[in-house]
Automatic annotation (TrEMBL):
Keyword Flavoprotein (UniProt): no
Organism: Helicobacter pylori SouthAfrica20
Residue span, 3-deoxy-D-manno-octulosonic-acid transferase N-terminal domain: 3-103
Name this protein carries in UniProt: 3-deoxy-D-manno-octulosonic acid transferase
Enzyme Commission identifier(s): 2.4.99.12
């Protein structure tokens, strides 16, 4: 097995390609030169966990002539859903199987086990993008008027935003009696709002969540995979 990170590095792969028997590409990594080279070498080609989102579909349609040529070089496509299968077929794909999302078959890994306070209601605001923390916090403060035992755990999607999210939360909470702590400095502590400003912790918090609000859907980004929190 060999890994090819970028299509532009294909020239450095000539030795590996000569021994290639099967090419497996995931999701929407539709690299023409990779599939073309594999087919010319007589290798079997597969696109697994294939997806074409509703939002990106019109962009694919504008270049349907190109994708029709590309799909001729793929022997088998395993689509994430019936809708993905339909969009792929419309773009010129041939042998497409509705196989479901393969992430359903992978068990999320928990690296740390945090105690769950039985009297607390843990609300996870997960994989958030710019603008979503403000919306989530506003909704949470209203929610907390009714559910006094609720606490919010904010997990931004990108680490470069950790500091700006911390500043946003601090400013928003100045006129409230609620406490804010950062996971990187205090760890898992009792507080009203916990900012998880460390990588690799999301599954650990999903495991103790009562409510998960998944980011990406409240701004023009497209939602993230709901299967991960649903596992718990």
């Amino acid at each position: 097995m060999r890994y090819l990170p970028f299509e532009t590095l294909l020239f450095a792969w000539k030795k590996n390609l000569k021994r290639l028997k099967t090419l497996v590409v995931t999701e929407a990594e539709l690299w023409f030169n990779v599939f073309d080279s594999a087919q010319k070498l007589g290798a079997k080609t597969m696109l697994i966990n294939a997806r074409i989102s509703v939002r990106s579909y019109p962009k694919y349609q504008r270049f349907s002539f190109f994708y029709a040529l590309l799909f001729k070089r793929i022997d088998l496509i395993l689509a994430q859903s019936k809708d993905d299968k339909k969009r792929l077929l419309n773009l010129g794909a041939k042998k497409v199987v509705d196989f479901l999302n393969i992430k359903r078959f992978s068990k999320p890994v928990i690296t740390s086990f945090y105690p769950k306070n039985p009297s607390a209601l843990n609300v996870i605001l997960a994989s958030t993008h710019e603008g979503e923390e403000e919306l989530g916090l506003k909704a949470f403060l209203e929610f907390k008027k009714t559910f006094k035992n609720a606490r919010l755990i904010v997990v931004p999607r990108h680490p470069e935003r950790f500091k700006s999210v911390q500043n946003l939360l601090q400013d928003a909470l100045k006129t409230t009696p609620f406490s804010l702590e950062c996971f990187s400095s205090k760890g898992f502590v009792e507080c009203d709002i916990l900012l998880v400003d460390s990588l690799g912790e999301l599954n650990n918090f999903y495991a103790i969540a009562d409510v998960v609000i998944l980011g990406g859907s409240f701004v023009k980004m497209g939602g993230h995979n709901p299967l991960e929190p649903a596992f718990f």
